């Protein structure tokens, strides 16, 4: 009966199952939602379609808590996945005709669950500037405790694994068997049976109870009097007589006879399940074991850190990763922040598509005649017969100018003009000698276009 007992394959809260095509899936449930990782690569739109057909949507990562939920799912496939990097779609998309907005956390992208924005983001590189091309976001997981779960914009037709999110009204605890048997759980959004022990099962889950090798009854997680419970509640697989000599008394490991009844126990490093018969690996994680999160595995306890942090030498605490030391911004400026970093560009440059691109300040300039782009600024040019006067109060305007006795007039549309201090004669501008006009009390010096008085 040991093989018929409720099997325990993975950590609490997490289930492993096979998809309809044979592709591996992983599942995790929290008090209000369940997350399913689908390993079969599909394009973004197909992934969203599958999630919606099952009653959910592509998983969002609106805060570090949801990011850690996804990390917990991805970490389960470490020993099974044949490649070093697992690419996973998340529910973030830039719609066609929407523009990239560099000053916003989501850069103009929107969550598929709705138009709600979020302040959390974790971009690997800046999305390319566009207002005409749709773009979708994936996470690349490298099976490392220091993996930063960075977001990368991709073409939506590329293929990747994907994670679906399902909201539920509530959860039920697992059913308890009072004798040898097994329970097969079937969730409303997973069409294949779940054969693993879970500590939370979503509203609507069906439990098929097998006693003696065949299904004897079933129960369903329902809302009853404001709470969530199984209906019917059991007990299931009860025994009139128990004996360690027969099928080990139904115990998964050790069996001890006690006055007509059996008492099951487990080997060192294992603990008795809630059903009193099965054994599961002891969870050695305690509140003070790890600074951030603690994971039980076959090798024992391991600590994990959130994105942007790494395990310290004591393998318990987390320290910030200074991404700037690894040239995360290439030759751009880099500012390290707790758990992340920010790339900056110098004056006259703007971050675009992960690179610092020169800003053309002449675009939209107010120069009269011509403009020269410079690093972080611009200079105005004037045509022949004009000059740029920086202290004139209107530095972008070109003024008529002549630096000799006479200059050609500037003519347009049958009208000719001269600079101040010059007189139009035909199509020539001739300097006016203001000294002959008695402009000074004593000494007067005529200049081209003006004059100087002295005493």
Automatic annotation (TrEMBL):
Membrane topology: Single-pass type I membrane protein
InterPro entries tied to this protein: C-type_lectin-like, C-type_lectin-like/link_sf, C-type_lectin_domain, cEGF, CTDL_fold, EGF, EGF-like_Ca-bd_dom, EGF-type_Asp/Asn_hydroxyl_site
Domain (C-type lectin) ranges: 30-165
SUPFAM superfamilies on file: C-type lectin-like (SSF56436), Growth factor receptor domain (SSF57184)
Domain of life: Eukaryota
Protein name per Swiss-Prot or TrEMBL: Thrombomodulin
Location(s), subcellular: Membrane
Entry-linked PROSITE patterns: ASX_HYDROXYL, C_TYPE_LECTIN_2, EGF_2, EGF_3, EGF_CA, SRCR_2
Domain EGF-like: 320-355
Taxonomic lineage of the native organism: Eukaryota, Metazoa, Chordata, Craniata, Vertebrata
A cellular component annotation (GO) from this entry: membrane
GO molecular function, one term: carbohydrate binding
Classification via Gene3D superfamilies: Laminin, Mannose-Binding Protein A, subunit A
PANTHER family: C-TYPE LECTIN DOMAIN FAMILY 14 MEMBER A PRECURSOR-RELATED, CHONDROLECTIN VARIANT CHODLFDELTAE
Keyword terms, alphabetized: Disulfide bond, EGF-like domain, Lectin, Membrane, Phosphoprotein, Repeat, Signal, Transmembrane, Transmembrane helix
CDD domains assigned to the protein according to its UniProt record, in alphabetical order: EGF_CA (cd00054)
Major localisation: membrane
Signal peptide feature range: 1-16
All copies of domain SRCR, residue ranges: 349-455
Cystine connections: 324-334
